[in-house]
Amino acid sequence: QVQLVESGGGLVQPGGSLRLSCAASVSLRFYPMGWYRQTPGKQRELVGTATSGGSTYYADSVKGRFTISRDNAKNTVVLQMNSLKPEDSAVYFCNRLGTAIWHWGQGTQVAVSS
């Protein structure tokens, strides 16, 4: 079973930045990956995606502020979050795209508050 580990979350003031990392027990380089977030009582939503070739997609709510990149040497997928807003507060998860998703990790908590 593939294990996903998200890290890098924390408490940050509005306008601040965080860098989240997604690591896995398999090589991520060949998989299209997505970052998701979830707040209590709401469904998990897609934040953005990155194909194995590096093409990216972002939800309108984060476009221009968030960037997904891959570090194949470290076998991680990174979500750089800038200009954070209180509404970005959530637990962030990563997973492969498509129907054969892996078991969800624990996620990493992001709190944006002054």
What is the molecular shape?
A: globular
Helix content: under 10%
How many strands, what sense, and barrel or not for the largest sheet? 6 strands, mixed
Instruction: Give the averaged pLDDT, no decimals.
Output: 96
User: What share of residues are in beta strands?
Assistant: over 45%
Q: State the secondary-structure class.
A: mainly beta
> What's the gyration radius in Å?
13 Å
The total beta strand count reads 10
Task: Sketch the topology as an H/E string, one letter per element.
Answer: EEEEEEEEEE
Q: Kindly, what is the distance between the CA atoms of the first and last residues, rounded to a whole number of angstroms?
A: 39 Å
Ranges with pLDDT <50 over ≥5 residues? none
Question: Treating each run of at least 4 consecutive H or I residues as one helix, how many helices?
Answer: 0
This entry's quaternary arrangement is single chain
Strand order of the largest sheet: 2-10-9-4-5-6
Question: What does it look like?
Answer:
The protein has no helices and ten strands. With 114 residues, it is an all-beta fold. The strands form two sheets. Strands 2-10-9-4-5-6 form a six-stranded mixed beta sheet, with no helix packed on it. The radius of gyration is 13 Å and the shape is globular.
